[in-house]
């Protein structure tokens, strides 16, 4: 069974630009969550989608948005990029309570 | 406000000895706790979990202990091996996952 796939793996963008990251969950998993990881901050929860609906949202500004498609694939969009948005963005899919499976992440660098 | 805290950013242990990683949480409504292991340039991988109705769960060399009255979680690795060197995150499950900031474990051969 294929794992969680995130694309692209690495990305360099300029301040003010926007970016879209993609996540394909494990087949059969309907819940997809997004996290931002920065040094010293651990994993910060961005949002969770379930059956194409945003079910939970973390404390991030509105520049961070997402969506989920009918095949459970999810995209995350960040608009008007800031230097502080440079981070590893992780996507996780889950089938049951408590056990989330993570992708390898997208390393975003904003210059 | 950090609801899950790992107060030790790093830990070094000799191979063969016990590694104890600690985690504290603030919300008594959390009902499920997990430990994840992360190598550089990879996503976290699930290690072991425990439900709030239990106080111990064991899986091979890994044991998780939960002390609900103290709101404290710990992961014991016995015996520690060099391949265990990684960053370990604890997480608590409520309406979302809350992660600690991680503890970097180094097992010295």
Protein traits:
heterodimer; A: 111 residues; mainly beta; four-stranded antiparallel β-sheet; 0% helix; globular; B: 109 residues; six-stranded mixed β-sheet; 11 strands; 56% strand
What is the alpha-carbon Rg of chain B in Å? 13 Å
Please give the most extensive interface between any two protein chains, plus how many residues each contributes: A-B, 24 and 23 residues
Biggest pleated-sheet summary of chain B: 6 strands, mixed
- Proportion of residues in β-strands of chain A: over 45%
Label the structural class of chain A. mainly beta
Q: What are the low-pLDDT stretches of chain A, counting only 5+ consecutive residues below 50?
A: none
Morphology call of chain A:
globular
Tell me roughly what share of residues is in helical segments of chain B. under 10%
List the helices and strands and how they pair.
The complex is a heterodimer of chains A (111) and B (109).
Chain A: E1 5-7, E2 10-13, E3 19-24, E4 31-38, E5 42-50, E6 53-57, E7 64-68, E8 74-78, E9 87-94, E10 100-102, E11 106-110
Parallel strand pairs in A: 2-11
Antiparallel strand pairs in A: 1-3, 3-8, 4-5, 4-9, 5-6, 7-8, 9-10, 9-11
Chain B: E1 4-5, E2 10-14, E3 19-25, E4 32-38, E5 45-51, E6 56-59, E7 62-67, E8 72-77, E9 86-93, E10 97-99, E11 103-108
Parallel strand pairs in B: 2-11
Antiparallel strand pairs in B: 1-3, 3-8, 4-5, 4-9, 6-7, 7-8, 9-10, 9-11
Structure commentary:
- The complex is a heterodimer of chains A (111) and B (109).
- By secondary structure, chain A is mainly beta.
- Helix content of chain A is 0%, strand content 55%.
- In chain A, strands 2, 4, 5, 6, 9, 10 and 11 form a seven-stranded mixed sheet that branches.
- Chain B is mostly beta strands and 109 residues long.
- Helices cover 0% and strands 56% of the residues of chain B.
- Chain B has no helices and eleven strands.
- Chain B has strands at 4-5, 10-14, 19-25, 32-38, 45-51, 56-59, 62-67, 72-77, 86-93, 97-99, 103-108.
- In chain B, strands 2, 4, 5, 9, 10 and 11 form a six-stranded mixed sheet that branches.
- In chain B, a hairpin with a 3-residue loop joins strand 9 (86-93) and strand 10 (97-99).
- Chain B is globular and about 40 Å long.
- The termini of chain B are far apart.
- The model of chain B has no long low-confidence stretch (mean pLDDT 93).
- Chains A and B meet through strand 5 and strand 10 of A and strand 4, strand 5, strand 9 and strand 10 of B.
